[in-house]
Amino acid sequence: MSALAALDSTLEGYAVPAPSAPARRSQPRLVLVPTGDAVLSEPQGRLRPTRAGRLLITTTVLLVAMVTAFLGLGGGAAASSAPQRVTVQAGETLSQIAAEHMSGSSITSAVAEIQLANGLSSAHVQAGQTIVIPKG
């Protein structure tokens, strides 16, 4: 009988849960901002760059490193130096000039490089002729 008494006090004989308070939405609240001397006394927070800022910094560092590496490996120095010019002496051959001024490579390849650099069709040179010695 006590169960019947509980049902009688509800809406049309059905048990209805007690109404709960509606959930409150958190709304922005006003915040006091310090002014005057109070602003200077508080420590500044650490700056945090955005994703785009980090990408810009990384790209800039890589670009500077690549330019430095290019110039450091002699790419910039070779372009600025003038080619060496030699005047052929009496009795001197192109092989002798190649052996004297291009000691880093074989004589035949050095002669071929000198011929290409000067537009020569053969290895014959004349006394007083100016020859450009390529860097190599």
UniProtKB/TrEMBL annotation:
Segments crossing the lipid bilayer: 55-79
Keyword annotations of the record: Membrane, Transmembrane, Transmembrane helix
Q: Name one Pfam family in it.
A: LysM
- Is Transmembrane among the key words of this record? yes
Taxonomically, which superkingdom?
Bacteria
Q: Where is the LysM domain?
A: 84-133
Q: Which InterPro entries match?
A: LysM, LysM_dom_sf
This chain belongs to the protein called LysM domain-containing protein
Species per Swiss-Prot/TrEMBL record: Knoellia sinensis KCTC 19936
Source taxonomy lineage? Bacteria, Bacillati, Actinomycetota, Actinomycetes, Micrococcales
